[in-house]
Amino acid sequence: MTTSPLLEFTDLTKRFGGVTALDAFSMHLDRGEILGLIGPNGSGKTTSFNLLTGIYPATAGTIRFDGQEITNASPRQVYEAGIVRTFQRSRLCLELSIYDNIMIGDTSRLSQGLWANLVKRNSFRAEFDASFQKARDLVATFSGHLADRMFEPVGTLPMIERRRIEICRALVSAPRLLLLDEPSAGMTHDETDQLMRDILDVRARGNGLSIIIVEHEMGVIERITDRCVVLSYGRKIADGTYAEVASDAEVQNAYLGVD
Ligand SMILES: Nc1ncnc2c1ncn2[C@@H]1O[C@H](COP(=O)(O)OP(=O)(O)OP(=O)(O)O)[C@@H](O)[C@H]1O
């Protein structure tokens, strides 16, 4: 069994002109771990996700995933390595169905192009049925009644269900690392509570999934994370359990301006 970290940042640095968004940030994520990446506004959390997923190149430093260096890999290479993300703002196509939205996340879904599918109807049908079943099974693990509405447009669903669909879209490619960017944004307290249960369920189902969650709701972080890394002005200022980092003087100072 491999015990090396699944993910490692070493001295990861990103400058945008004169702004240092990440400053020699080093951290690791263990296999199967749920890690909270927290810090005040502008501390570099989203930039970390953007470097990890190939949206921006790093100015310096390295990213290793499962023993391979992936610094500056393209978004496609990152996806193929098994890293997927959800976004702060919903990226669902509201006019499209639940099924369509989920299958956008699975680029392995159909092996042939349009013309081959028109000619070879039977093999297309078999591939379609398998992909539909896969999406439906995944949705059913979150919500039985949603699984019966796979062809309804996502725009008719409440926020919690939309978030679930986004998570299903991320999970349909069977990733090893799920990045959640503020999953509670725009949801009520009760919806957030349900979503936390969903996330813990996803992890409990196993498959070795690891999760990094960026979240401003500290109740969420406290309840679902195994460990937290705290950023302030692009620098790591604490690394430990929620209880440890919450009682750290530098963390309290960064959040509250308390000395
Ligand atoms: N594309 C960009 N161009 C210029 N500056 C940027 C860019 N992206 C981020 N920054 C700057 O980098 C710093 C870190 O921003 P980042 O969005 O990573 O913070 P964050 O911790 O995710 O904040 P929030 O909690 O508000 O989402 C900020 O000063 C931000 O203004």
Automatic annotation (TrEMBL):
Keywords for this protein: ATP-binding, Nucleotide-binding, Transport
> Is-annotated flag, keyword Signal?
no
Q: List the molecular function annotations (GO) for this entry.
A: ATP binding; ATP hydrolysis activity; L-isoleucine transmembrane transporter activity; L-phenylalanine transmembrane transporter activity; L-valine transmembrane transporter activity
Instruction: Name the CDD domains on file.
Output: ABC_Mj1267_LivG_branched
Q: Which GO terms describe its cellular component?
A: plasma membrane
- Name the Gene Ontology biological process terms: D-alanine transmembrane transport; L-alanine transport; L-isoleucine import across plasma membrane; L-valine import across plasma membrane
- Keyword ATP-binding listed? The answer is yes
By its UniProt entry, which Pfam families does this protein fall under?
A: ABC_tran, BCA_ABC_TP_C
Q: Which InterPro entries match?
A: AAA+_ATPase (IPR003593), ABC_AA/LPS_Transport (IPR051120), ABC_transporter-like_ATP-bd (IPR003439), BCA_ABC_TP_C (IPR032823), P-loop_NTPase (IPR027417)
* Domain of life per record: Bacteria
Residue ranges of the ABC transporter domain? 7-258
Q: What protein name does the entry list? A: ABC transporter ATP-binding protein
Species source reads Antarcticimicrobium sediminis
